[in-house]
Design brief:
2 strands, two-stranded antiparallel ribbon, mainly alpha, 72% helix, 21 helices
Amino acid sequence: MLQAIHVSLESLNLVTLAPMLIAVAGGLIILVLDLINEKLDKTLYVMLTLLFLFIDMGAVLGLNVNERGFFDVMLIDGISIISQLLIIVGSMLFIPLALTSKRFHEFEYPEFFALFLFMIAGFQFMAASDNLILIFIGLETGSLSLYTLIALHNRANSYEAAVKYFTMGALAAAFYAMGSAVIYAMSGSVELYQVAETVSARMAGNGAGLLPALAIFGSAVLMLVSFAFKLSLFPFHTWAPDVYEGASAPLAGYMSVVPKIAAFVVSVRLFGMYIDLGIEWVRDIILALAVLTMTLANIMALVQGDVKRMLAYSSISHAGFIIAALALDTTEGNTAIFLYYALFMFTNLGAFAMLWISRHKVRRFNNRFDHPYEKFAGMIKIVPMGAVIMALFMLSLAGVPPFSVFWGKIYVMQAAVNAGYIWLAVLMGINSAIAAYYYLKLVVYMFLKEPVKSVDTVYYNISKPLMAIIGLATVATVGAIFYIQPLISYFYYMVSASGY
């Protein structure tokens, strides 16, 4: 005879689900409003999206550190909270661009804003769980929404970009599913803390044997391949430049930051588990991927003829920089990941948004690219303030002090030196020097070259919302020196509270 199972609401701790439910509810409300009245001004949906993001942020700030909820599949630790805050802040920077007077047509669709909120909920589920099944659900929810957002740009190369991203994402999902299956087979659990306990007990009891060793090897390799795709690490990075080129400029900037924050959180939990178990070859592979990614991406960026593709390879190089911090498996190293992205987020989103001020439907300067270097030639004579701001973003990305990304880079290098990896810090410095060349190349075009023929016919879209977002990114980039220490202290405290 079956016995009824009673579950109290207190034990479910549903408040841990509140941030994701707010984002999902926001998306559904936008869809319902459009069904009721299709003639509503689309500006309403922008403001509603921002409102739900503010409420979402409030729900995250109201969470207690180191709690579990909903049958223990939700994990609210320090890393979960700071990553969700970064995801929401990055989204708040992006969505007001829909208010610009010459907006991309996809901002006219209420479905765009609904999918955007569903995507954020998916990324938050990834950040707030150590359950492999829930992480997979969050991963696919966020990814499927993002594929559609790219395709909504409604250009030939946007469809191509969406299909490429979908294909690569499906392949990454397949590797993740296979890796999760192997982890479950060797441990009998999909909860990472239980997996760690089971595998540790087997290794301590001399029960490793050939089969468990193969299972550990197989699961780690499958997961490494999966997240190498998601983080655009060498040699699984080839999709990124084409996808960024096909997406709208602001969305490309958003993609270079926010989805990677969610993927890095899962990587910290997953690969940190392997390294903590003493499986050193996982650390070695991650370090090799980091060095190859940052070096080869920088070399490829040197030969790009399009600023957008250069920034795409730049983002790949920065991802390689950050994955090295993950391999250190120290509190300082994991703090460096979140500090770096908190600083990099403003600068990179600002740089991609700057590409939009000279957007046009016809490729006037190059039959192949939308943003060739020639388009920015002599920009100081046409839009002086725009040239100065873009130069600030380029100097920050190059790691020139005192701009924001410099502090992220120096903290990662410090973490590497303190962990005993002096050679890694040296390689990071060399790569930063290489990267400075292609960032300064754009500065040279803007300040030292003459405008090319018919450059004055380019329409400069400098609307107030766009100016506000770029202005905020500029203030954050230049004023980083004033808030760097509080950020480090806060992130270090939160990561320490997570036990990493």
